[in-house]
What we know:
110 residues
Amino acid sequence: CRKRVGSVRTVWGKGYAFEAMRLFLIYVFQELKLHKVTAGAPVNNIASIVTLKKLGFTTEGVLRQEALVDGAYRDVVRLGLLAEEFERSLQPRQASVALVASGDRSERCV
Length: 110
């Protein structure tokens, strides 16, 4: 099954895409029990690629002339994230939140 997640230019750079994708990934991995999620971004869309990598995605390759944009074919970076990789990425975040919730200020949250 393939689904597209888009964006709205007025909210670019505010962290909404990261948080929305993080919640989406929690849902698809924990509730739907998917094994892998893939994503694609134009090679020149650095912000999207950085956001996906922050979420744990790994570059799997470049699809040459994959998308027709404004009359020209563009390369697309293909990234993938396995459920086990995402679950591992959640562990430190949950530990940091637990420290703040308990009132222990001896360590900084990341």
